[in-house]
């Protein structure tokens, strides 16, 4: 199993955030994204950092798990920082190396982008860490329910999401096995030049896609054998219940948004 | 095409719960996978379905609960003739456990996986809670409820698959090579579960298998070959019939092979039904 992959895995600690209604957590996360986009000063960033760390700590999940969630994107963050640094030429020049200059504006925007992205990833990981995929789907289904009037099928969307999340680790494991099988026959992807890597990638994708179709077929058999029929009525074991803490949770994000907009 | 054999109910058995009459199926009419299968399985029987790879075993069981489109012939399950109208009711009567435990795990956790089928039955919360507790305890997986599929062994995954099916309380349970991807220990565990199910007397078991021990434990063997029913025999009759064993690509169980070798050496021993019986024969 892919041990490093933590997408969609909940970490049970029994904290107050774990007990919240999934709809409250999804709405909170959407508000958080808006707040992040609104924050344009160092003071706003500091407020955001204090708020985020406080909420993360209240889940009683060790902070290292949140950092682990951001780790795979560290190079992307570095790339964004460098691009901002080199492309924004506002403010005073902080450093000049020959014809290249780094400006205060570039440094500021680069840092803001990285901080925003970092908090966006670590904080939204809170949603999956404190909510089981089943409850997450129920929450999403609940939020999308009003759109049924416009022909949207929330149950189909959530079923697709849950199956995708369920099979990501399985397909990653399978790709590892295929890569190792190819390496054992002398085609080690890591040691090939870039052009060959591209060609090899095709020979990697074909068996992975074929296997994904096979798995999908088996899964359909398994679902149908358990009586699943699209759009048929179903009961729910875990019911969504909106409580006072859910309202408090949402209010926290609204207050935070107002504070960030004002500073 | 091989000679067609008409399956019969064994003497002294109960009412037929599965009946097939002249069932044929194929994606290409010129190359049918199954041809003119007629058989009947009684309530409470444990039936092994054997045959070489590609002979149509999985196709046959998938036809029973309409996982494949209906071909020619009549299929009757629990008194209901298979049709578009009865698919839902028939699927409630038949539970299926497949070969690869990974590909039949629908939920993200063990609990969600077991609840998937129960929620589809529109059961009340109390009923779902009761069945969840009862079947996970029975299969020894109640401590795994919050686990993800990746955290389970092959044997545990297969137990989850069986619990998911049994919790739906079907009268018929089909195992489609359910033990072929398991290690020896997990395979023995599965055999133990099957024996417990038989002891309860409320399940009819149809098991596709190549495993001699599993065949020996069953009541009856249906052998498929070339898309037709080649034999409908008891396990003992199957293992005494060398031609049929070769046709089905099967080997004798270990005690049988050993007994035969001893007989060839001039030591008289009766062919035993199990390893335990063999030991009792040698050292009474």
Automatic annotation (TrEMBL), chain A:
Subcellular location(s) per record: Membrane
Tagged with keyword Transmembrane helix: yes
Keyword vocabulary terms for this entry: Membrane, Transmembrane, Transmembrane helix
Domain of life: Bacteria
Transmembrane segments: 29-55, 75-97, 109-129, 242-262
Membrane topology summary: Multi-pass membrane protein
Cellular compartments per GO CC: plasma membrane
Keyword Ubl conjugation found: no
Pfam families xref list: CbiQ (PF02361)
Protein name: Cobalt transporter
Taxonomic source organism: Paenibacillus etheri
Organism placement in taxonomy: Bacteria, Bacillati, Bacillota, Bacilli, Bacillales
Automatic annotation (TrEMBL), chain B:
Annotated Gene Ontology cellular component terms: ATP-binding cassette (ABC) transporter complex
Compartments reported by the entry: Cell membrane
Membrane topology (UniProt): Peripheral membrane protein
InterPro entries in alphabetical order: AAA+_ATPase, ABC_transporter-like_ATP-bd, ABC_transporter-like_CS, ABC_transpr_CbiO/EcfA_su, ECF_ABC_transporter_ATP-bd, P-loop_NTPase
Keywords: ATP-binding, Cell membrane, Membrane, Nucleotide-binding, Translocase, Transport
Organism domain of life: Bacteria
Domain annotation ABC transporter: ranges: 18-251
Claim: Cell membrane is one of the keywords in the record: yes
MF terms (GO), sorted A to Z: ATP binding; ATP hydrolysis activity; ATPase-coupled transmembrane transporter activity; cobalt ion transmembrane transporter activity
CDD domains attached to this UniProt entry: ABC_cobalt_CbiO_domain1 (cd03225)
Coiled-coil residue spans: none
PANTHER family registered for this protein in UniProt: HEAVY METAL TRANSPORTER
UniProt similarity note: Belongs to the ABC transporter superfamily.
Protein name per UniProt: Energy-coupling factor transporter ATPase
Species in which this protein is naturally found: Paenibacillus etheri
High-level lineage: Bacteria, Bacillati, Bacillota, Bacilli, Bacillales
Name of the gene encoding the protein in the UniProt record: cbiO
